[in-house]
Description:
Elements: H1 2-40, H2 49-58, E1 66-68, E2 78-85, E3 94-100, H3 103-118, E4 125-130, E5 133-138, H4 143-156
Antiparallel strand pairs: 1-2, 2-3, 3-5, 4-5
Amino acid sequence: MKRILGLVMLSVLLLLAACGGTDKTSTDTVKNDTTDKHEAEEPVKEITTDDMISAFKKDGLEIGDVTDLEKKEFGDTREEGKRILVPSLGEDAGGRIFRFKDKEGLAKAKEYYVTLGESGPLFYSHTYEKGLFLLQMNGDMEDAKFEQYEKVMDAIID
């Protein structure tokens, strides 16, 4: 009885080994297909404030001198900050574009500009947020013109 059971088990093992050999090629093919797909995928590029400014320019929007903002403006809550001059608004006038680390930092910054604008018309500015970006522009800019900047941001940020 033990011999018969042993022979049956040996036969099953040989059968499994034979089946396993034919599946190996199809498994290798699947692995190669999966690897090729992952290699073909391009990494997602992180959008920067420079990318946004380039997109504004490409779309024909007015962008003068651009400078980095000191960290004191919203400090550790932001990744990047740029000051944008818009010559048609006057000397030393324009706005800012920020990329924040998280939504909380962005919300606080936007609230700062909204509250400042509510204190009087002299301090009003346009603000627009999309993703982790906040655009702030001088309130003297026409609404229709500011909407053009918004559209560019909408087109770039998912």
